[in-house]
Amino acid sequence: MPLYQYNAKDPSGNQIKDKIEADNENIAVEKLTGRGFFITSIEEFKDNNGLNIDLNLFKQRVSAEIISTFFVQLSIMIKSGISLVDALKSLENSETNKRFLECIDDLRNRIYNGSSFSEALSHHYDIFDRFTVSMIRIGETGGVLEQVLVRLAATNKRKIAIKRQLIGAFTYPSILMFVAFIVLFVLMTFAVPRFADLFAKGGIELPWATKALIQTSDYLAHNYVKVLIGIAISVFILIYYAFTDQGQSAFGELSLSIPVIKEVTKRFYVVQIAESMGLLLQAGVPLRELLIAIENTIVVPTPKNTVRKMIEHIDQGSTFKKALENDPIFPPMAQKLIETGEATGSMDSMFNEIASYYDEQLSVAIKSAMTLIEPILIVVMALLVGFIMLAVFIPLFKMSFIRAN
């Protein structure tokens, strides 16, 4: 019997992560909902003896632009009265991305055989993230699937805009780092060994910096192939790790502690949480249920704790104002707007205002961060090159002084 791995909340609100046996996914879902669980994700568990390498990294990429267009077209057709199966069939006929075409075909078949849209999407976490699947699930239960699809399209467009901003901002620093790496590598593997021979013939006492530089250079000169292979493997592992939940959690938490980019990360989560809150409140989703759904779409501990505190205060009959006091994610202005929304009974529109305002602030924060990162990189590279130059020229000055005497 197949084994299914799931994440859910029990009737008391406790997080459950476990496995369950069932003939198929629908039966597994029925068993869990029968226990009063609120399911946030479920997928068939496959044990690969620990070798869980995500081969999807090597498949054709499905860009955010493709997903955004997919949601827009799907929302238009559903709003026009076209059934979900027929809408997916139509989109399937016009799709050119082979990997996404296979995904749409699988979605259509699963829905035709009785699965809900969110259940079908949960089989494709390599393309649709947990935030998307959770929003679709809530849109289905709340009867606002078209609105959710439109908002998801807007979210993907924002991701595209942010990505383009980051690519544009990092282009020059990346070129600078690449050129600096090549220069340093050439210096260390070809230039420094020649100076090392010269210093050996000179018979002078070398400073510690020069000794360290020569030892490093000697190692690189004899093992540069191993070093390059090691760097390539390390970069691959780092990229792979960044695509896992653990990696996203670690890097997200790290970005909240780095002064240059922490404001970018904070504004990103303010926008994500506020946008989701505004949409789901407008759809009439119960407050506690929507907060649980949002909590389970976030993997980074700090913003996740922010949402968890909101749930705890709601359970205690308290207010968002109390929950967000001294919060590391929501700035004072956002907290004041939320307090006003609670007092006036306009929480949905207030959260939408917060999302709109901090979306603009996010772009400003990205530009500010990039203007700081560039000179920092230049200074770091200058210090490295300066260290090498000093380590080489100090012994040369000593040799010149000895010969002059």
In short:
By secondary structure, the protein is mostly helical. The protein has 3 domains: 3-44; 63-128, no CATH class; 158-405, Receptor-associated Protein (Up-down Bundle). The chain has helices spanning 25-34, 64-79, 84-94, 98-112, 117-121, 130-142, 145-202, 208-242, 245-255, 262-282, 287-295, 301-315, 320-323, 332-344, 347-404; strands at residues 3-9, 15-21, 38-44.
Question: What attributes characterize this protein structure?
Answer:
about 75% helix; mainly alpha; about 400 residues; 3 domains; single chain; 3-stranded antiparallel β-sheet; 3 strands; Receptor-associated Protein
Structural commentary:
- This protein has 405 residues and is mainly alpha-helical.
- It has 3 domains: 3-44; 63-128, no CATH class; 158-405, Type II secretion system (T2SS), domain F (Receptor-associated Protein, Up-down Bundle).
- The chain is built from 15 helices and 3 strands.
- It has helices spanning 25-34, 64-79, 84-94, 98-112, 117-121, 130-142, 145-202, 208-242, 245-255, 262-282, 287-295, 301-315, 320-323, 332-344, 347-404; strands at 3-9, 15-21, 38-44.
- It has a 3-stranded antiparallel β-sheet.
- α3 runs antiparallel to α4 and α10 packs antiparallel against α11 (287-295).
- The longest helix has 58 residues, at 145-202.
- It is elongated and about 90 Å long.
- The termini are far apart.
